[in-house]
Amino acid sequence: MTDTLTITRPDDWHLHLRDGDVLKDIVPHTARRFARAIVMPNLKPPVTTTAMAMEYRQRILDAVPENQAFQPLMTLYLTESTSADEIRAAKASGAVKAVKYYPAGATTNSESGVSDLSRVYPLLEVMAEQQLPLLVHGEVVDSRVDVFDREAVFIERELLPLLRAIPGLKVVFEHITTRDAVQLVMETPDNLGATITPQHLLMNRNAIFKGGINPHHYCLPVLKREEHRQALVQAATSGDPRFFLGTDSAPHARHAKESDCGCAGMYSAHAAIEFYAQAFDEAGSLDKLEAFAAFHGADFYALPRNSAQITLVRESWKVQETLRFGDDELVPMGAGEMLPWKLV
Ligand code: NCD
Ligand code: ZN
Question: For the chain, which domains are there?
């Protein structure tokens, strides 16, 4: 049995950091574990221009502890009025690495998203030409579609038509949660990748209702059936380079989750690589963790792989019940529970 695991320092290809005062509480968790992270643009107001992304990037860098080297990779929030010039400026900046598509109304702070993707196809052509990936929140927004089916329906209604219309576009199907999404990625050429979160590897939808309703296990896309969790574990541990690490760590104040209309989002940055180690270990595939966490994403984004390393040991430790979140607190994933893997 492996008790010590040294791997190349990983990257997080899908992360929410928020903004302002809370950055100093949030950024260090990721910076301690990861060399780089793709930072989501769903702030209020959303990060829609390269100028905004550059300023946000500096505020994040200001929150990185002195002894840590962490590089935020920025994204733009796609709207129906994003211009081709903005896309070219984003690419030219070198700091913006992708553009995020939120179907309008699909999730937290997605009001300014796109309501009909085909309307922005001309812009996506420019992204293909610039080799700037499109990151998709893959859920339809349709009250007639069951919340557990929204990802599968998105594949049919939006993703397949997009992949056919613009075959040269690099697309990341973010935080996949279903067997259907795994199959699609495996059947599609290399221009389609997918990120997988720790919560979707470790939990099924029972976690939302275990012993009573648990708002801290509510995220979007929502946790799915056990058979889907198993398909995700298989994909993540398969060694297939199209699947890579993206935590979707999404902090919300405790009161915003424990509310009569609780926000979607789980916070995992405080123990992200530890959770993935646990999931890979449970699958008997610790040897596949390094490539999933440190190689596949960098290769997909055509960025150099990291050279530094991190070490994890099999030593149980207890997750804090709450963490600081500016003037508030948040309840992290695994709060109060023992985790089997510890970062040295
Ligand atoms: C994210 C957030 O809170 O910003 N929430 C979530 O449940 N994942 C938004 C998102 O990525 O969907
Ligand atoms: Zn997200």
Answer: 10-307 (3.20.20.140)
